[in-house]
Amino acid sequence: MNLRKTYFILPNLFTISGIFCGFFSITLTASGSTAEQLYQAALAICFGYFFDTFDGRVARLTKTQSQLGMELDSLSDVITFGCAPAMLVYKWGLSSFGLWGVVIAFLYVAAGALRLARFNVLTQHETKPGKFLVGLPIPAASAVIVSLVVVNHKVGGSLVYASQASLAVLVVVLSYLMVSRIRFRSFKDLTINRRSVMVMALMVVCGIIIAVKLRASFVFLALMSAYIMLGLSEEVIFYRKRRAEELAAKAAGAAAAMAPAPETPAAAAATAAREAHEEAVQDEEVLRELGAFDADEDEQESGPGGAKPPASSGT
Asked: Other C-beta atoms within 10 Å of 110: how many?
């Protein structure tokens, strides 16, 4: 038995495990009525982050990337980072809004599904991963909601009661960022150099300070907030440059569409031969009109039984 043929199961097992984490979180949220159960539902989504991080790496390590794995990963993200956080945030802080709470939670799910569908379309023809992602990734958006639930549990559950309206606005903003054209860094081109080491060291120091001054649960929320602010600040700073690049790309595409397609050598030879034949026929017609051909030649050209053309009257 060739064990290598079973390698494709490994990344799919990671992805399916992520789906289970999302489903388990939904069951805890649906049956939960206490802050402790909602906290457990948030932790289940956190385990989903682990499986979502390593399924692609396992696929690249075992060289078992496939279209099936990509589509399965998208479905896993919709369930684990779309439906589960939406149910969690509705049960946690949006249920008091009634039907509007349902609409806001569904808006998050719909935006996440559209974001994933657009991502799949944009990456179909990519040969290598890009530096930026169009729209806020759905794991990052769900991480903000999950970290808020965890922080709320650690501070005693008083956070949500003081800012339910702010929570609703936050969910709407996250939904918009997912379907927007704002570009966020993917960090897939990250290399180990002096600059990256310094940035990582600075993040570790900031995380330690936040954990000491506040609580360890605030570290995850601070990292996700910094990631979103990085994308928004880069969009503002480089807006003109990116806009100029988009306009230049559109102009180049329009010019390429209007330009005639290059002919192949065979097509070019056929076109030249056709033009030469048409010129010869035109010259022959001109000569015949001038009387350069006599009646006998015309009769031979017309063939036996052919009608003779009228003889031209010479001067």
From this structure: 15
> Is residue 33 a contact partner of residue 15, using CB atoms and an 8 Å limit?
no
Residue 234's alpha-carbon distances to 194, 216, 238, in angstroms, are 22, 28, 6
> So what's the pLDDT on residue 141?
93
**At the top level of CATH, which class does the domain 3-185 belong to?**
mainly alpha
**Neighbour count for residue 127 (Cβ, 10 Å):** 4
pLDDT at 261: 54
Would the pLDDT of 91 be above 80?
A: yes
Give kind and range of the element (H or E) at residue 132.
strand 132-134
Instruction: Judge contact between 111 and 136, C-beta under 8 A.
Output: no
Give the DSSP letter string of 212-270.
HHS-THHHHHHHHHHHHHHHHHHHHHTHHHHHHHHHHHHHHHHHHHHSPPPPPHHHHHH
